[in-house]
Amino acid sequence: MEDLAKTPHLMLFTSKGQGCLPLVGRNYWAIGRSKDNDCVIRDHCISRNHAILQSTGAGEFLLIDLGSRNGTFVNERRVGIPVTLCNGDLITFGKTKVEFYCPSSDQSDESDESSLERDTMVLHERRLMSVMVVDIRNFTVLARQLDDNLLSSLIGNWFRGAGEIIRQSGSWVDKYIGDAVMAIWFHGQKEVKEEDLIRIFQAVNDLNLMTKKLSQEYPVPFELSIGAGINTGYAMVGNTGSGDHPDYTAIGDTVNAAFRLESATKGLELDIAVGEQTYQYLADLARIENLFQKHMVTLKGYEQPTVTYGVTFDHLDKFLTKSSS
Questions:
Q1: For residue 238, how far is the Cα from the chain centroid?
Q2: I need a surface site. Which of 67, 81, 240, 267 has the fewest CB within 10 A?
Q3: CA-CA distances (angstroms) from residue 271 to 125, 134, 173, 178, 183?
Q4: Phi/psi at 310 (5° precision)
Q5: Sheet bearing 28-32, strands edge to edge
Q6: What's the Cα-to-Cα distance from 94 to each of 31, 45, 84, 216, rounded to whole Å?
Q7: Which one is predicted more confidently, 262 or 68?
Q8: 64 with 159: CB under 8 angstroms?
Q9: Out of 68-77, 102-111, 163-172, least confident range
Q10: Closest listed residue to residue 13, CA positions, set 86, 102, 100
């Protein structure tokens, strides 16, 4: 129990007694009634895929409801968008009470050498990767016009659909951020294969179609749409998982630029913005010159203008059709 007191964990209170889920060894945990979840709760009021708990890698944990029928509550308040948990928060899934513990670790007795060794283990490998960031457009306006229950169901189903699409494309959701997701695809040490890029752009296209489908299923005040930023380059990564949960976390300019590129799509009035290196890898594919538009943009945090290539979903669909023929 002494070790548990120093470890982030969930304490479950059920009719059969207490249970504990240590929050270590990976960066997300699926919670629900279905047996394929990391935390299976046998409660008929809980959805098969109810929620996800996401570690940010900076000592914080985000709770994301996946559009569950009966909702997820933190300290008796229903949460519709990702919320950062605090030590001692009481979570309710269906009729099951769960308490979140994340005690601050006392590292005052650690030597500088051991601290450096720990930090080096977290970020230890430089990899060539493509980073995709996808964001729901005008989400703030949408949140003001929908009631909390409807908004929770909508965003939860969008997160769930995004996760399924990205997993089918050979990646995973590395981060859930408000109304956005980030995913990573790893390449070879020095090369990016054609099928890797096609898979990424197909995932973006599928995310767009899934978002439009949700527009038809919910009484939203305007059609839902997304913007995406895709960037390719090297970044430092660390593996905190095992088995079928690779749980890589990436940091560096390649990741930062992907977020900035997504933001740039709004000013460019385009759906997708890709980095210059991503475009160069694409240039070996058939006829993309008339589909992608070259722009010079000033990205937040960057002193010099950056070259980016933008494309609409209509043109992306043509590109994918040509690539598959």
A1: 17
A2: 267
A3: 32, 10, 20, 19, 17
A4: -105, 155
A5: 39-40, 28-32, 51-55, 61-65, 83-84
A6: 12, 5, 20, 28
A7: 262
A8: yes
A9: 102-111
A10: 100
Are 283 and 292 in contact by the 8 Å Cβ rule? The answer is no
Residues sharing a CB contact under 8 Å with residue 184, sequence separation 6 or more, in sequence order: 129, 130, 131, 132, 171, 172, 174, 237, 248, 250
Q: Which tokens is 288 given?
A: 């993309």
Closest listed residue to residue 194, CA positions, set 48, 58, 320, 67: 320
Whole-angstrom CA distances from 176 to 166, 221, 309 are 13, 24, 25
pTM of the prediction? Answer: 0.73
Rounded to the nearest 5 degrees, what angle is found at the Cα of 161, between the Cα atoms of 222 and 184?
110
pLDDT in tens, 265-315: 999 999 999 999 999 888 766 566 677 889 998 888 888 899 999 999 998
CA gap 5, 23 in Å, rounded:
12
Rounded distance between C-alpha atoms, residue 124 and residue 105, angstroms: 22
- Provide the CB-side half-sphere exposure for 88 (13 A, CA): 1
> CA–CA separation, 204 vs 175, rounded Å?
16
Pairing between β-strand 226-239 and β-strand 248-251 as defined by DSSP bridges = antiparallel
Residue 267, SS3 per DSSP: helix
Q: What is the DSSP letter of 24?
A: -
Q: Cα(78)–Cα(67) distance, rounded to whole angstroms?
A: 12
In sequence order, which ranges of the chain are alpha helices (DSSP H)?
A: 112-122, 139-145, 148-168, 194-217, 253-268, 276-282, 313-324
Nearest CA among 144, 224, 125, 267 for reference residue 184 = 125
Torsion sign, CA atoms 77, 80, 85, 91: positive
Q: How far apart are CA 278 and CA 300, in angstroms?
A: 20
Contact indicator for 182, 133 with CB cutoff of 8 Å: yes
